[in-house]
Design brief:
heterodimer, A: mainly alpha, about 60% helix, about 0% strand, rod-shaped, B: Glutaredoxin, 2 domains, about 35% helix
Chain lengths: ~160, ~180
């Protein structure tokens, strides 16, 4: 029984291992359309003209790159494969979304850490301000009122005398 | 008479967390400052030591700067989509034919953000025979802070930068004159 289970696990693992990483574009025989090329080009940036996505870049360099995307799509390359190819050829700066590797991880890891830290600090600050002791309050007692009463009495007596 | 409300047991904010957060913040600011400084430096300076780099040609040959010590290197950045690279390429080829047999000067073409198919077609069209290769990952162009083509850098026998040409050489004469600076 254990052996059968082991065989099933091995077969499933092999199956998973051989599943392609991404679906290729040339799975069907229909030609690659401009929309398909532009959809991928939108996620790449021209390094020559700054901050211009490849799908709207008017230069000859970008036109050549779009042709290259089309060629790769026709060869059946998947989207991640094409992006990886461009990153290797021209550097990570051509990718609209930085790849999750090396120092790039900081971009993905730091903001959540900073936000969480901010929330923790804010919560602690609010809870601390709620539990902080209020400043000492002096409550007046009848004995404390004694000097004031004598002054009032004096004033009243003065008034009576004048009347 | 004074009445004090009962004091709560206030937990002190962990100093370690504050320290780590501070170190991360300072580190990020430092990295950002270094990046800003590097990006502001537009070009390399004449006389500066050029770090090692490797050009692997389209045919697979490798040229490493450190292994070319003692020779003058003319490093030309170009693209097939560059309008002024064709005439300059022809002039460079003319001078290359004059110097290649002496073995003292090496011409290296670095193909800047281009496709291999178009680059090879360009080289064939203009009959360029000196070693040319793609700039994989834009590493060499980043090293030289290239942001447009053509640009040419002449590195002396001692590995230091001798001359910079931003834009195309207008003639073979200009190239010869630039190479003489390295002698």
């Amino acid at each position: 029984m254990k052996r059968q289970l082991f065989c099933v696990v091995i077969m499933l693992s092999a199956l998973v291992a051989f599943v392609p990483q991404g679906i290729g574009y040339a799975q069907d025989t229909s030609p690659i359309t401009d929309d398909q090329v532009n959809a991928l080009a939108e996620e790449l940036y021209c390094p020559v003209c700054e901050n211009v996505p490849l799908d709207v870049c008017p230069t000859q360099a970008c036109a050549q790159w779009r042709d290259l995307i089309r060629e790769k799509m026709e060869l059946g390359w998947s989207e991640p494969q094409i992006k990886e190819f461009f990153a290797l050829q021209y550097g990570d700066q051509v990718l609209a979304v930085p790849p999750r590797r090396g120092f790039n991880w900081l971009i993905y890891v730091l903001p959540p850490i900073i936000i969480l830290s901010g929330i923790v600090i804010a919560v602690r600050f609010v809870s601390r301000s709620k539990t902080q002791p209020l400043p000492a309050v002096e409550i007046a007692t009848p004995a404390d009122h004694a000097p004031l009463d004598s002054v009032i009495n004096e004033i009243e007596q003065d008034l009576k005398r004048k009347q | 008479m004074t009445h004090n409300p009962p004091t709560s047991t206030r937990k002190r904010f962990p100093i370690a967390i504050a320290l780590v957060a501070g170190i991360i913040l300072i580190g990020m600011i430092t990295l950002f400052a270094i990046q800003m400084k590097n990006s502001r430096q537009d070009t390399l300076e004449i006389g500066s030591e050029i770090p090692d780099f490797t050009v692997t040609t389209f045919s697979g040959e490798t040229y490493q700067k450190s292994q070319l010590q003692g020779k003058v290197i003319l490093l030309n950045f170009w693209s097939s989509w560059c309008a002024s690279c064709d005439e300059e390429g022809a002039a460079l080829e003319e001078v290359w034919q004059e110097v290649k047999d002496k073995g003292e000067i090496v011409f290296l073409g670095v193909n800047y953000v281009d496709t291999e198919k178009d680059s090879l077609a360009f080289l064939e069209k203009y009959g360029i025979t000196f070693p040319n290769g793609p700039d994989l990952g834009s590493r060499i162009s980043r090293l030289f802070k290239v942001d447009a083509v053509p640009e040419t850098y002449i590195i002396g026998r001692d590995g230091r930068l001798v001359a910079i040409q931003i834009g195309p050489f207008q003639s073979a004469e200009e190239i010869r004159a630039a190479l003489e600076l390295a002698d």
